């Protein structure tokens, strides 16, 4: 494992932070290619990424200290807020989504066509960010396994000598597959929002599946918190997809300004 890309004196460059930054850059590249194709200003992509980055980091930290650190002291909570660990995907996703929605509404552009592009950006950004988890060995791995591709993380931030499921690798591969499929379908799904609804289903299903071999504790009905949120994402994606299909069936042309 490589928790740090390099060290110069007391300065150390964390591989996790580097991959998260590369994930945001990849997401920005997708937005700046896709938004002009849809007739929107490419600069909007920078605003969306900035809102997503700030909202994502704040939300990820808040989720971690509120739900992953019950009973923590103020000192422990303060230290966690400003540490490099404790970044939870769903907390970041929720707050980032609110921030991005606010930016879109402020600009006065239709939400669903932007959401279609944002779904692809989220998929590629998440896939690259998970490479950072793998390189850092930050504890996002799965349960012990004797499969040939099982890995130990002796030098990770959260080390283990036992071979376990490399869950970050699974999530990277699933994220890349999701992005590839959405990219191929972006010109075929004509009703705004359909691509985003598909993203919600695929991303939710991928995380639900990976959680089966993760170490996260069960919270309800034998499911982890991430699995419960995944089910909400899947249900929202299916519900939105059905609604958009019904709306599209009653119109002769694509609905560029379809309301959410």
Identify the notable features of this structure and list them briefly:
single chain, 260 residues, mainly alpha, two-stranded antiparallel sheet, 63% helix, 8% strand, globular, disordered C terminus
The overall pLDDT average reads: 81
Structural class: mainly alpha
Shape: globular
Give the oligomeric state: single chain
Q: Portion of residues in helices?
A: 55-70%
Poorly predicted ranges (pLDDT <50, ≥5 residues)?
Answer: 253-260
**Radius of gyration of CA atoms, rounded to a whole number:** 19 Å
> Which series of helices and strands comes N to C?
EEHHHHHEEHHEEH
Q: Largest sheet, described in full? A: 2 strands, antiparallel
| Tally of strands | 6
Q: Please give the order of strands in the largest beta sheet.
A: 1-2
The tally of helices reads 8
Distance between the termini: 44 Å
